[in-house]
Amino acid sequence: MSFPRVQTCRGELRIHDDLDDLRTDLVEYISEISDASVKDRGVFTVALSGGSLIGLLGKLCDAPYSKTVDWAKWYIFWVDERVVAKSHADSNYKLAKDRLLTKVPVIPSHVHSINDALSAEEAASEYEFGIRQLVKIRLINVCDITDCPKFDLILLGMGPDGHVASLFPNHSALDVKDEWITFITDFPKPPPERITFTMPVINSASNVAVVAIGASKADALRVALNHEDVKSDSLAFPARMVQPTEGNLVWFADKQAALKLDGVEFCV
């Protein structure tokens, strides 16, 4: 099955007829990057977001991926996390565990979640320390330009307001440049305490995928992909700030999310 792919000035865009088509393409995309990373480096480092994005990964648990993906080489991280107990309904870790991690043979010690017994500030600091140790031994690559960790793949959802990870419009966390992980205690949506990758880390990845589903994301996707230079407004629309330094960016959208793309400049 093939899917429309167009090149925009903000990365590749793949538009899908329905959610099932999007799931199929997204899972195949992840599998391909996993295979390439394992072949090239012997490991695959992937950072997940929470929410509806995790629900799209269910096909990874089915054939052929359950058998063909080299799960023992996966190292899993979280782009952002709610500072709640791992058993809490709001935990991104719990969501991924219930829907994916318990259904595939990932090695438990390769799953790097936050310490939920700490405060948001302490959890962010400890999480960054752990990632720095993995960078030192080159399990995680480093971006030569930014000197940030270079994950093989970062998976993001996008909110109707253009937020990605736990980076909301006009929040001070968007200004953090000298830390890999930052913390938030006043998140606009509950729960208010969270940790999140900073934008320099997101933009240092080898591959970044952003998923937009539903008509509620149509305006956000149009703004995110618009070719006009709106750097002055980027803090008001975090998805505009997702521009990998030396990596690839792919947007996955269904037809509802792509409803308002008239006027977006597509490259030949």
**Mind describing the biggest β-sheet?**
8 strands, mixed
Structural class: alpha/beta
Helix content: 25-40%
How large a portion of the residues is in β-strands, by DSSP E? 15-25%
Order of helices and strands: EEHEHHEEHHEEEEEHEHEE
Radius of gyration from the alpha-carbon trace, in angstroms:
17 Å
Count of helical regions: 7
Q: Strands of the largest sheet, in order across it? A: 4-3-8-11-12-2-1-13
Low-confidence segments: none
Note the gap between the termini: 23 Å
What's the number of extended β-strand segments? 13
Folded structure, characterized:
- It is a single chain.
- With 268 residues, the protein is α/β, with parallel strands linked by helices.
- It has helices at residues 19-41, 52-55, 65-68, 92-101, 120-136, 199-202, 218-225; strands spanning 5-8, 11-16, 44-48, 74-78, 80-82, 141-142, 149-150, 153-157, 181-184, 194-197, 207-212, 248-254, 266-267.
- The strands form three sheets. The protein has an eight-stranded mixed sheet with strand order 4-3-8-11-12-2-1-13, sandwiched between helices. Strands 5-10-9 form a three-stranded antiparallel sheet. Strands 6-7 form a two-stranded antiparallel sheet.
- α7 (218-225) links the parallel β11 and β12.
- The protein starts with a strand and ends with a strand.
- This is Probable 6-phosphogluconolactonase.
- Keywords: Hydrolase.
- Pathway: Carbohydrate degradation; pentose phosphate pathway; D-ribulose 5-phosphate from D-glucose 6-phosphate (oxidative stage): step 2/3.
- One of its GO terms (biological process) is pentose-phosphate shunt.
